[in-house]
Amino acid sequence: MKLVTNKQALVESLATVSKAVSTRTSIQVLSGVLLSAINDVVTLAATDMEISLRAPLSAKIEQPGAVVVPARIVTDVARTLPAGEVVIEQRGGETQVEIRAGESVFDLHSLPAADFPQLPQLAGEEFTVAREAFIETVERVAPAASRDETRPVLTGVLMHLEKNLVRMVATDSYRLSVKETPLDTSVGKAVQAIVPARALTELVRIAGSAADDRIGVVLTENQIGFAVGGVTLISRLIDGQFPNYRQLIPESFDYEVAVGRDELAEAIRRVGLLAHKNSPLRLRFGANMLTISAESQDVGRAHEVVPIQYSGDELEIGFNPDFLEVGVVAVKDSPVYLRFISPLRPGLVKGATDDFLYLVMPIRLSD
Amino acid sequence: MPSNKCSDIMRGMGPRAPHRTIAHLDFDAFFAAVEENCDPSLRGKPVIVGGGERGVVATANYVARRYGIHSAMPLRTARRLCPQGVFITGHFELYREYSQRFRALLGEYSPLVEPLSLDEAYVDLTGTELLFGPPVETARLIQRRVAEELKLSVSVGVATNKLVAKVASDYQKPGGFTVVPPGQEAAFLAPLAVEKLPGVGPHLLEQLRDRGVVTVGDLARVPVPLLRLSFGEWGELLAHRARGEDPCPVAPREEVKSISKEHTFEEDISDPGVLESTLIALTEEVCRRLRSQRLEARTVTVKIRYADFVTHTCSRTLPRPLDVDEVFFAEVLSLFRQGRRRRYRLRLLGVGLSNLTPRAWQDDLFDQRLPLLRELDLKLDTIRERFGKKAVVRGATFSYNPSAVSYTRTSERAVSSQVRLG
């Protein structure tokens, strides 16, 4: 195998696939990137058996072939090479792969391409979704997904597609986000899947810089594939029953307060510096005034007053500042509406118009 | 010469010492003595401190003991035995303050101080020769300083381990000072009544007496396999104890690692109703202590000891730490049902909480009842703090029966105090 590419293209393609390289594996080949130059196309591929990524590399093939190169070192090498042409070559019968650029020559140990797992080719109904709407939905919902692997279902985002609507739901059991987004395309029949939040976050990273305005989606029984800007992302789906999130959302709320989105988000971020795991952020709603405060025993305390239009009963409620901030920031327009029942029941964060809601469980305040 | 001095110190250091020197210090009639300090006119009169929720004697001074009054005796009996006695409810803040001064004083002589309760502590004096002289003299100095600085009498036992030191401090009360030299442990214990051995309670004592064991020496002569046959692992431990062997280190208590409570039945029990209500009561108690220390727990353990002393423990870890009674009731009962594998009567049940973290009170959307149940627990805690542990009891604990007769009475009282509160 021999191909000629350039430094910039190599660095970018490697960066795209490197997130799928396995970091903790005893299977050595999974810590590599498959480089294949077959049928006039050069692609890079990586997989950790949960997600796989495949990206094109613009290059001239002088001799077709395929090889697995160690991901970490090749990425570091590519980044430090001088700008310009890069030649990657593996001579017949050798296990070494040679990378040449300018006067630098690297001979790296490689593994045979045959050892690399076959990447899935998904067969199923293929449809497209509008890139921006889909990406925005992921960005607003996925932060509420859990990172705790002990309950795998909660590390995923429930994705429901129906006619020309996508609904995503995520919860780590402390908060819940739900967003419905209209799509300008239509799905044949309603489909639903629990997609690892990590896969969707990767998709956002890849699609964010893509020029396409569509994302291709293929859904099978246990896998989902996305295609955008020439890159393919395939993820395993999470098996299991997603919690019935609708029954978690209270039917009615007794208090509603509108607060300027940016003022609120910034105040939470500032005062939140003085809150920590065992001392929550305190929100006190009084006459036309929201007082946000926090106290950390060995550090100090802070408070800030945010003007609001409010004339109801006084209410004091505590939250984890990070959980609250994620919800407020996920609302796109000002003002943000906060709804409560009591300091012991969940609070709701919502915008005025769109179909997004964020439910968050408070922290009990000590008197 | 600095270098010589250094090697001298090295020679005297703990790890090289051939045996340990541990002192057990135990105040004589602590609460009553503190009261006498505060009000010298009490001296020479029978002073009885007690009352509160259990209505029993906490401490009686030595004058009162001449009337036959002893701790844990119902106050009513004490009043009958000694109508002219001075009965005091007790000033626990004050006792705590004395206790802290006592521990601080011990801390001057060793970093290894293990308080057992307000009025007794172990101190490991091993390897302090070069700093303070012979450890036995140091122990005597501590006893003198307690008398001078705290104006309190303390009994001291010095031995090579905690077990023998504790027995020795009780050997000549009040004001005793008993040293058991290395190698003399078994000989010292042998003539003593077997119930003097810590861990031998009334139930075990009865079984030992049935087997003709009266003194610690008798117990030491029972072949170990026989003890193991009768009492399981505990029997083996008992054999060591009878010979005055105890490898436990003096462990300064740092942060709380677990909270637990056990109940030994007066008679071995098999009635599931009584067993389960006992578990509920024990769980209530450990959860109450958990909350009072502002902690949450992830792991809950149930301990089951059968009539033949075979002991099992089983535990479960929750997905996240919690402090709500109701959650642990469910876990404890299911652990018990799974963990009770033998059709024997039970001698003891215990409930423990571990994996403790400072409370976060971050509740879960999936169980929105929990914050409300916690409010209930916190209200009950407040009531119990003001009116005593039995002021409010859950119906499920009614057949829990720590003291067979008095329980009905306390539950009646609980109902009436509920009415008053309402």
Task: Report on the architecture of this protein.
The complex is a heterodimer of chains A (367) and B (422). Chain A has three domains: 2-115, DNA Polymerase III, subunit A, domain 2 (DNA Polymerase III, Chain A, domain 2), CATH 3.10.150.10; 126-245, DNA Polymerase III, subunit A, domain 2 (DNA Polymerase III, Chain A, domain 2, Roll), CATH 3.10.150.10; 249-360, DNA Polymerase III, subunit A, domain 2 (DNA Polymerase III, Chain A, domain 2, Roll). Chain A has six helices and 26 strands. In chain A, helix 1 (7-18) runs antiparallel to helix 2 (71-80). Chain A is elongated, with a radius of gyration of 25 Å. Helix content of chain A is 18%, strand content 41%. Chain A has 367 residues and is of the alpha+beta class. The model of chain A has no long low-confidence stretch (mean pLDDT 91). Chain A starts with a strand and ends in a 7-residue tail after the last strand. In chain A, a hairpin with a 6-residue loop joins strand 7 and strand 8. With 422 residues, chain B is an alpha+beta fold. Chain B starts with a helix and ends with a helix. Helices cover 43% and strands 21% of the residues of chain B. Chain B is built from 17 helices and twelve strands. Chain B has helices at 2-12, 30-38, 62-65, 75-81, 92-107, 129-132, 135-150, 162-169, 185-189, 202-210, 216-221, 224-231, 233-242, 272-292, 325-339, 370-387, 406-421, and strands at 22-27, 47-51, 56-60, 86-88, 113-117, 120-124, 154-159, 177-179, 258-269, 295-306, 311-322, 346-358. The longest helix of chain B has 21 residues, at 272-292. Chain B has a domain at 258-419: DNA polymerase, Y-family, little finger domain (Dna Ligase, domain 1).
Keyword list:
heterodimer, A: 367 residues, alpha+beta, DNA Polymerase III, Chain A, domain 2, 3 domains, nine-stranded antiparallel sheet, 18% helix, B: 422 residues, Dna Ligase, domain 1, five-stranded mixed sheet, four-stranded antiparallel sheet, 17 helices, 12 strands, 21% strand, globular, disordered N terminus, disordered C terminus
